[in-house]
Q: What sequence folds into this?
């Protein structure tokens, strides 16, 4: 991958997270931007810096992790320490996926037990308020990847969209979940087993 190709990948991921009318997958990561336009950018050196450091698949994850965190991120910010920190957090979650997912599920189970409620109740919206699961994410106790995986298995985000009353925090998170979801790859069978194992053991204790 060269600097210009990295620039186009950057634009595609940025458009995916910052707009509603561009889909990275439906558009096959293609964007309308000429090489001459790229040459006129004062920040093109940043793209050279990234392609010399990361492989193409790593660079995609780098952009995805950062734009999922902040859809308005500028390329200059991406090459600084914060961009690296965000990517490393994403990478570490994926490299130790089973451990991290299980840890999040245990945390969710313990939170429900401490509140003396069933796991199902932790997903429910009561009187328009944020459900317990969402509050765990907002307090940075579980990752957004875990919520996305759980939603792909249990399908609850659509209900949250209808039932959560506030119109500032949740709509932004809902949009982030919708845009990030296609990038999350996981073993569905393994994740279902982990959830079943932990939540069923909770019932028997």
A:
């Amino acid at each position: 991958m060269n600097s210009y190709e990295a620039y186009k990948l950057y634009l595609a991921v940025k458009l995916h997270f910052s707009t509603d009318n561009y889909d990275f997958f439906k558009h096959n990561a293609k964007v309308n931007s000429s090489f001459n336009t790229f040459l006129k950018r004062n920040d093109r050196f940043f793209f050279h810096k990234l392609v010399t450091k990361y492989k193409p698949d790593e660079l995609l994850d780098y952009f995805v992790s950062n734009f999922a965190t902040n859809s308005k991120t500028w390329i200059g910010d991406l090459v600084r320490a914060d961009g690296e920190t965000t990517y490393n957090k994403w990478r570490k979650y994926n490299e130790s996926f089973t451990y991290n997912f299980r840890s999040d599920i245990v945390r969710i189970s313990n939170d429900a037990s401490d509140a003396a409620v069933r796991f199902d109740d932790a997903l429910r919206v009561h009187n328009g308020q944020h459900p317990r699961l969402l509050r765990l994410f907002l307090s940075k106790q579980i990752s957004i990847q875990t919520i996305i995986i759980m939603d792909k298995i249990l399908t609850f985000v659509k209900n949250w969209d209808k039932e959560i009353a506030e119109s500032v925090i949740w709509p932004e998170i809902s949009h982030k979940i919708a845009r990030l979801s296609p990038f999350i790859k996981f073993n569905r069978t393994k994740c279902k087993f982990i959830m079943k194992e932990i939540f069923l053991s909770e019932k028997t204790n």
Summary: Residues 96-204 form a domain with the Annexin V; domain 1 fold (CATH 1.10.220.50). The CA atoms of residues 122 and 132 lie 5 Å apart. The chain has two domains: 3-94, 96-204.
